[in-house]
Amino acid sequence: MGIPTIITDLALIMIVASISTVIFKWLKQPIILGYIVAGFLVSKQFVFAPDIIGDADVEVWAKIGVVFLLFALGLEFSFRKVAKVGRSALSASAIIIPGMILVGLAVGKMLGWSMSNSAMLGCMICMSSTTIILKALDDLDLRSHRFASVVLGVLIFEDLAAIVIMVLLPTIAAGQAFEGTEFLFAILRLVFFLIIWLVIGIFFIPSMLKRAKKFLNDETLLIVSTGLCLGMVYFASAVGFSEEFGAFVMGSILAETIEAERITKVMTPIKDFFGAVFFVSVGMMIDPSILVEYWKEILAISLAVIIGQVCLGTSGVLFSGATLRTAIQCGFSLTQVGEFAFIVALLGTQLKLCDEFLYPIIVAVSVVTIFITPFMMKSAIPVVEWLNVKLPEKFRTMIERTQTKKEVEGVMGVWKNFLTQILEIVGIYGSVSIAIVLVFVTYIFPKIFQVSGGFWINMVMTVVSVLLVSPFVRAIIAKKNHSAEYKYLFSVNRSNWAPLVGLTLLRVIVGVAIIASLICYGVLREHPWISTFLAMGVVFLIFRSRMVKYWSIKIERKFFYNLNIREIEMRKNMEEKSSVFESAVLSKSLSTHDLHLADFVVDANAECCDKTLIELNLRQVCGVHVVSIIRGERRINIPGGKEKILPFDKVLVLGTDDQLTAVGKLFGKPEFDTPMQKKEVSVEQLIIEKGSVLEGKSILESGIRDNSKCLVVGIEHEGETTMSPSIHTRFCVGDIVWIVGEKDKIQNLIQSSLTSIDFK
After folding, report:
1. Matching fold, domains 584-675 and 681-760
2. Mean of the per-residue pLDDT values of the chain
3. Which of 18-27, 265-274, 385-394, 589-598 bottoms out in mean pLDDT, i.e. has the lowest?
4. Longest CA pairwise span in the chain (Å)
């Protein structure tokens, strides 16, 4: 009895891949390149070694590999990160992603390709490689630099764009690409199902895992996670989406649970194994004859990727308000084609959206651009220094004004925040309500009508459906009507009354439409107007009902508890205020001097362990300020000089890129994806007025650190700024002082500093 071909093929793949990856690791090259080379060596194109027999079997393994790669990406992604990365990454991504799609389209047309091939090329080159960039940042010791967090944010949005592209490709392949209504419907359908899956998944799955925690060892957690992943894959495929999309969504849901780290740990071997098979299958599709034939196209596309990402990446980040240094470093870091391009190319080839020659071309472009990534990152700083010398003074001044320009506060800013919150409420609760309506209209009501056409059974089911949807309808019509934003807009100007009332009426109309659809389809199919009037009465009762309000609030709290369960468990139920109107953000003035916050986890063998801050003297040695020390569940803000640094402490430090790099040698690697804008410390500016109690005092004499538990990190005097000033520096009238500390303590300091010493 012979060995099945799937076993012999897998043995050949693993043996060749193991040798190739070890060699590439020794050469300090990305391991993905080793997999691709291994794939080429076992393919039929390479005649000097045994080749794969069962290509179909390898394709199945590769398909499974894509599923688990996307599942792992979802575990690392987490939709909460989208809200944390900030507007800088969002505005930069809004320029980079469509800009690179247009670049690919233009290059394809210049090469004489069809519109379909050119469009697919644009979709492939609009996404950089998260894996390669993270490795390069580690190798070059750049993770603590300011630009690294912006690059991470851009990569998150690029990954999300890749998922959207993969979901929409089947719609395009079905011939609906240029039918605007159908294409718009496909996008709305995607958003609808995405919201439903996330809401339902986050509402139930974290609670389920928490209750079953004592039964979840590594083995059972692996089985449960795999089952949830493949279950969502099946469900996504059943409703018309790709399997990869389902795997990604389930990974994003599980990323919000308290078991996220353990799930990532137990799933990593499976992801690595199947991922290796996928990248080997990529290498198997490389045809050297095609690469030789299209070497000019490969070179042209590689140059387009490098030049396009440098220009669009730098412009996008610069437009978001970052410094020229940060913008150029971001643009030079994104100059490669990522692994998502392989998946998009494979899907496009299978759907006949692009010719087969495009697949090996994009793989070759990826190899070229991945290889030069470290060199591009190293060349960013020399380019910055050269531009600082060559750029006209007017242009540099314009950039600095863009960086320091504050967001417009007041009525327009509050309106923007209020409308954003209303759209989120209507979008989320409206989607859940529509899902309930669809379940009853398309499944439950027809079944009831088949079994019994009686009026009273229909009435009972209609009442049940209305009761189920009522908490969500109440949230649509009533939530945020008593918020700080609403009260402010209502009181600040009478001209706001009409739009506020109109917005409330629109929300009521949405609620009435949802209830009316249930009543009409349930018992009054022939009388839509009567259903509408009845729905108005029901909506009024829902609005007035204390029981509905109770359940609406309870459901919402349960959802947000599950969404924040990891932070809640870590911080012992310490709630963070999420209102944009009330939240504090770090002062943008710091970015002018390249100051930013970074987290460092102290390595157990670090030389700073068991030493006090006085002994380390970080302010004098490295020029940085220690803002917080997080030790387990304890947080020490503005620590004193006698506070010791212990192994595994998380230390929050304020400084420049170069200063943070020096600190990293003492502490260890920084936490790359820590959300900077959610810290429990803030940066504020204090102006020394005439008669202030701080006038004429030195920083040491003022007692700002000892009494107010705040840090002075900079002083602007007569247009000149001194960062990390000496403790003997004296405050003068008109000085702008930058202070770091807990927000309430900063506010107390500002109020006390305004006290006049002149009581005449």
Report:
1. yes
2. 77
3. 589-598
4. 107
Residue 90: strand, helix, or coil: helix
Given the structure tokens 């899956």, which residue do they identify? 197
> Do 645 and 615 form a contact (C-beta atoms < 8 A)?
no
Please name every residue paired with 600 in a beta bridge, in sequence order, or none if there are none: 651, 670
pLDDT digits (tens, 9 = 90+) for 323-342: 788 888 888 988 888 778 88
Quickly count: other Cβ atoms within 10 Å of residue 373's Cβ.
25
The closest alpha carbon to 716, from 733, 703, 701, belongs to 733
* Residue pointed to by tokens 């071997």: 269
The candidate with the shortest Cα–Cα distance to 466, out of 516, 532, 426, is: 516
**Region 681-760: CATH code:** 3.30.70.1450
3-state secondary structure of 575: coil
The distance of Cα 585 from the centroid of its chain, to the nearest Å, equals: 18
Q: Is 617 left (phi over 0), alpha (psi -120 to 50) or beta?
A: left
Single-letter amino acid code for the residue at 22: V
Q: Tell the CATH superfamily of the 584-675 domain.
A: Regulator of K+ conductance, C-terminal domain (3.30.70.1450)
Q: How far apart are CA 230 and CA 242, in angstroms?
A: 12
**Kind and range of the H or E run holding 683:** strand 682-687
Per-domain boundaries in the chain: 5-378, 411-571, 584-675, 681-760
Distance from C-alpha of 172 to C-alpha of 116, rounded to nearest angstrom: 10
* Nearest residue to 345 via CA among 169, 164, 154: 169
DSSP state of 405: P
Who has greater pLDDT, 392 or 280? 280
Assign a CATH topology to domain 5-378. Na+/H+ antiporter like fold (1.20.1530)
Residue 401: pLDDT band by 50, 70, 90 thresholds? low
CA 43, CA 39: separation in Å to the nearest integer? 6
pLDDT of residue 673: 43
Helix (H, G, I), strand (E, B) or coil at 132: helix
CB 203 within 8 A of CB 559: yes
> How far is residue 236's CA from residue 585's CA, in Å, rounded to a whole number?
38
**Predicted pLDDT of residue 451:** 66
- What string of DSSP letters covers 274-298? HHHHHHHHHHHT--HHHHHHTHHHH
pLDDT at position 405 is: 47
Contact 445, 463 (CB under 8 A): no
| % of the chain exceeding 90 in pLDDT | 2
Tell me the β-bridge partners of 637: 628
Vertex 266 angle, CA 283 and 134, to 5°: 55
pLDDT digit string, tens, across residues 496-535:
778 888 888 888 888 888 888 888 777 776 677 787 888 8
Does 124 have pLDDT greater than 80? yes
pLDDT in tens, 674-697: 443 344 566 777 778 777 788 888
The answer to whether 273 and 72 have CB atoms below 8 angstroms apart is: no
Question: CA-based angle 628:630:634, to the nearest 5?
Answer: 115
> What are the DSSP calls for 387-413, one per residue?
HHHHS-HHHHHHHHHHHHPPP--SHHH
Sign of the Cα torsion 220, 221, 225, 228 reads positive
Confirm if 159 and 340 have CB atoms less than 8 A apart: yes
